[in-house]
Amino acid sequence: MYSDSTRYELYTEFHSSRAMKPAISICIPTHNGERFLRECVQSALDQTFTEFELLIVDDASVDSTFNLAKQCASEDSRVRVCRNERNLGLVQNWNRCAEHAVGEWIKFLHQDDLLAKNCLTDILEAARPDVDLVVARRELRFETDATDDTQRIMQNDVAQYSLTRYFPSQKHISGEQFARVVLSVPDKNCIGEPTFTLIRRSAFRRFGFFNPSFVNLCDWEFCARVAVNTGLCYVDKPLAVFRVHSGAVSAHNRSQGYYRAVTIDGLIVRHEIAYSRHFYPVRLAARKDTPPRNLKMELADAVRQARREALCGSDPQAALGELRRAMKNHPRLLCMPPTYLLRWAISKTSWMAEDSYWWRKQ
């Protein structure tokens, strides 16, 4: 999957006594994470369940992260450290972790997050042989440098979009049930960050890796992709802590460009739901609605709305540039289903000529 230029250096090998594969690979993708890494690693090593490897993949950090990781490896034989030759970015580093993990299950742990001591025990106990995803309830910890707006937005998201709210007291959620949730809120992450998940490693072979086209919703799209097919198991108690601070990637993504992180990511999610074979269960659920829903039509409407949002924003040219890049990478965003064109022709309103001209210009 990666070229020679992204070769990694393996600095610690498994001890010979670990010839058997561990049940779980705890994967810490890290980049310039010296502030919280030691505490994060310790929370993993303190687990009551001990059959795991701890894989730290450093994405070419320029601070002391890599040295800290090597020090952790020298102190505990369960720790394995890899370093990317060059910076791959957040999503590709998550994929790098999945490629090099050896456990049956993968437990992602962000460099600034924490696991409860019983996390692996409880989350593995909830797993089922026919389900590839286990999710624990989200718990946020706001550092003093987290802005009031960030706290408000994230607290609101957790309150509004959570598995506890959608499926109260339910431990197993079928693929069909979850497809209905994706259909109703396609761009709202009701599962949470990777720190709250346990993913069967074979799921990456079946359903692909994290999609690097996303800025903010890569974890949600991947987990939804898995869950609509195999369902998921839910542990309605906090087994991990997601730390929110000014240096967090999620905060950085939003501050760098709300339109790109929210609007464009939302379009790409809808694109995958409308066209990807892995989201067929969602399209099936849409056809069973009364009346049936046409997700390709809805995607065309969403693209048109995204264009209007760009034109009304503070920097229309930059926003339209983001939209055009998304269309270049996902050409079917330009597709208008025949029924959409027919509806367009019947309306005879002034916005048609304007939109038609814009679509042709793309």
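That was protein one. Protein two is written in the same sequence-then-structure order:
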Amino acid sequence: MRKKRSGWVTAVFGGQFGDEGKGKIVDYLSQKADIVVRYNGGDNAGHSVSNQFGDFKISTMPTGTVSGVTGQVQVIGNGTVLNIISLTKELQYLEDKGIDLSNIRLYIDKASHLIMPWHIAHDKLEEERRKKHSNIVGTTQRGIGPAYADKYQRVGFRTGDLLNYEDFAWDFTKTYYYKAKLFRGLYETEYAAKGPNVELQELKAALDYLASKFGNLDNLICDTPPILWRAIDKGQNILLEGAQGALLDIDRGTYPYVTSSATGIAGASQGSGIPAADITERIMVVKAYMSRVGNGPFPTRASLYDEEKLREAGQEYGTVTGRPRNCGWFDAISFKYAAQLNKPTGIAVTRLDILDEFIIIGIREREEGIDHAYGWGLEKRVRGLRNWNLLPDRAKDLCNRIVGNYRLKYVSTGPSRDETIVAPKNRK
């Protein structure tokens, strides 16, 4: 029987179409975490962080990498798909930003799957094919979907395969030529890549870089669940970091305009190896308005004028791709759906300060359409406020309308770590 522990396991996940500000909330909570785990997605999902150590855009490493907490462990979980070359580029970027990699304790789960060059090529070719039939999904073309597809077809490469590099290189070369033949048949085009030897040289260089920064690869690439189980038994605090949002979930999102992984609380357990019963808190992050990148239904899109105003005020451009996001008003209907799926113990409302620019805002609380008569025009600006009692009454009312019967735990009033309100339990 497990010992009684005093620590916590908190999962943070998005309740909308991604880009909800999860990076900000994870960074805030990481201050008290012993371990931060990224549990799904790949380098298609970017998290933005602004704290006393700088401004960062992260797409592969756990957000805790820039938390500034000494001795904190970072884990890339088995539910992710990993581009090794992107990982090394991100680590070099972090070094350039002043992060001392020698202080980072990183573990990569050996069961996480690798994004290969042919996955990226496949992603691009498939989007081109869809474009001809006017049903483009709008992926980031980072190879995420094809990597997960190979995983479930049981033909993928796992990160642990890199530890036996000679066998890996042989299988890589065979698969390279197989994929080239497949693409010729499917898309009537040549696989425009560098050749298996060049691709392998780049992968080997990335591995050598990781070894130079983190030492023995057998320690870096390992079975991570036992590390997490031991931490739970010791009463340590674990933060599980999700990518994308509930409405992009592969099963319960707006299929086929979804991502390729489980984005909610179920994915947190499956993608980390932590039993669901050990997850003590479930924080769902939502913006005070909505945005969506790529294609798919978006029922609360604002007018052209308000959409552009939201986009510019919130700098709603993809962290990874730079693509402009579709912008609109908060959708309480989809919120209830996401909350029912995930049963959050708390809600974090982010980007409330972006609405400072508006006199009238919208909110969708009825199936029939958007209520545009929600008066805003606050007597004072929300940006930078750090206490619930300092918020204007209309801002408090909006937060309460957003979360409904769920508990409001955090309100973000700006990008910086300290621009965060911890909401009182008995808020008014």
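The chain has two domains: 9-109+223-422, 113-220. Keep this in mind for the problem set.
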